[in-house]
Amino acid sequence: MTIRNYGTGSIRQRSSNSYSVRYYGPPDSNGRRKQVEESVKGTRKTAERVLRERLSALDTGDFITKKKATVKQFLDRWLEEYVTTNLSEKTEQGYRQLINCYTGEFSNRQVQSLTADHIQALYSKMRKRGLKPTTIRALHRVLHKALGTGVKWGILKQNVANATTPPKIIKKEMKVWDLESRTRFFKWIKEHKYSDLLSLGILTGARRGELCGLTWDNVDLNDNRISIVKTLSRITGKGLVARNPKTNRSRRSLALSPSAVKLLHEVRGKQIAQQSILEDAWNSTGYVFTQVDGMPIDPDLVSRAFNKMVKESGVPHLTPHGLRHAYASAALEAGVDPKVVSQHLGHASVSTTYDIYAHVIPELETEAAKKIEARLLGN
User: Fold this and answer.
1) Where in the sequence is the domain holding 212, given as residue range(s)?
2) What is the pLDDT of residue 3?
3) pTM higher than 0.70, yes or no?
């Protein structure tokens, strides 16, 4: 491991993607400058950038030690040093929005003086303002994660969010279309521009961002499979961004049914025809589902169009994610092993699948008991 000096600072490589940044902080009350060490994940360039920023802040007098930081300063640094390095841009955007919208009342308080009472009082005020428990629990997850990092950094002695209780979420009964509703809806939208995308969604259980991010180089019509390796989403200030799925298990290969294979052949044919018409005006982006000029489709537009189609077709209200539920419920009811369904959906673990589709599991267990009895007794 090499150490490279930058005036009053240095960088030490700890692993292939982790660096230790060291520099001397501002003088304390006795005029002594103590060495500060920060762990930075990423490339050497990332570590160099962090060191330059710290030294520049020391030169201009803008440097603030982590232990004397306000809640806002601490959370801003946590977003910069932890979230941007370890999580997706979409997640960072969501975290930043929650922090900016709801933590204002204690943002100027010194982070070490933040108590569980302060956080619990915020949750109560949010509830009185009519905010949903899901929003409050989302903020709780962010604060819990941030303050937990503060403990690891040695800034905080304990994670005070542990002593808070966000409101419980009352689970609503999952809505899934029956066969009649599914048939009616897909017959009604047959000529709609998003019909093919939505049809593949219910045939594979893929997420809308995964469908919008699907490219032809990840479609194998000889082996009848598609690979989910990217998801498309809109990032504020950047537009549509293709990014890695949220978990490793979300990267997966899906077997296609005959109907799905036929559908993709038709989509390919339509795209080739459109390309021959537009010629140079066609954008060769490689996406399976595109706008008329070959550019990718915004997942948010799909959601808005879907909601409008549901209302106009007269079927029970459902979100685009409901198509994924319809696929999973149908698979479980057909006797497919929950582990296989979990892998197909890209869930983090099979326990997630059991939790979401608990309403289907008892019926499967009853049916399994009958089959076992029949096998044992020869009925």
Assistant:
1) 179-369
2) 42
3) no
